Amino acid sequence: MGITNMQALSELQRDALREVANIGAAHAATALSLMTGTKIMISVPTITVAPLAELAPLISKTNEQIALVPMEMSGGLHGHTILAFPLPTAHRLASLMLMREVPKEEALSELEASALTEAGNILAGAYMTALSEFMEMRLLPSPPSLKVGPAREVLASTAWATGHTGGFVFCVETEFMIDQSDGRLPGYFLLLPDTGSLSAMLAAVRVA
């Protein structure tokens, strides 16, 4: 019988998906290092399963502004992926991409927004590559977009836009640690598969 609710996953199934998340985070760290010319380490990912709109306190405890890079996923799996960053992380990531100091302004500039969208595209691609290789499925991402706003509002609007207003989301929380500094970049990779794709994922990791 297929899984229709991610909250009902067994611990074995969560462990299997956690292993995929570990591989994806490692791919993302490598991609980020290549993008910025800076050695990037990653923390061990933490996995949370919850409705998309309820992840706001995890990403921003005070409902501060966050940046989201949502993408549609097709091919062997169907659904959506979202990269989410607190705004300080978004500024830091954009500054690494642009190889310049972090600006003091709160809002993202047009140049920063473009750099962050490209970073999100490459990082999400790294996660999808890991999923593709691990599960021997071809995954195709859509062009990325960028949303910035208070955590609750942008997550709620994204849940509505992707049709995941009641469905559960697989959220991978990790920290990117920058070489030769104390900087840590908290980031969140959200996987929103449709029901059939979730069952296919679990079948691919042989724990369905």
Can you put this structure into words, describing what you see?
The protein is an alpha+beta fold and 208 residues long. It has a single domain (9-204), classed as Chemotaxis protein chec (3-Layer(aba) Sandwich). It contains 6 helices and 8 strands; from the N terminus they run H-E-E-H-E-E-H-H-E-E-H-E-E-H. It has helices at residues 11-36, 56-59, 87-98, 110-135, 151-162, 195-204; strands at 40-42, 46-51, 65-75, 79-86, 139-141, 147-150, 168-178, 184-193. Strands 1, 2, 3, 4, 5, 6, 7 and 8 form an 8-stranded antiparallel sheet that branches. Strand 3 (65-75) and strand 4 form a beta hairpin.
Tally of contiguous helical segments: 6
CA-CA gap between termini: 8 Å
Determine the fraction of residues in helical runs and give it as a percent range.
40-55%
What's the number of domains?
1
Q: Which CATH class applies here?
A: Alpha Beta
Tell me the total number of β-strands.
8
Q: What is the annotated CATH architecture?
A: 3-Layer(aba) Sandwich
Shape: globular
Low-confidence stretches: none
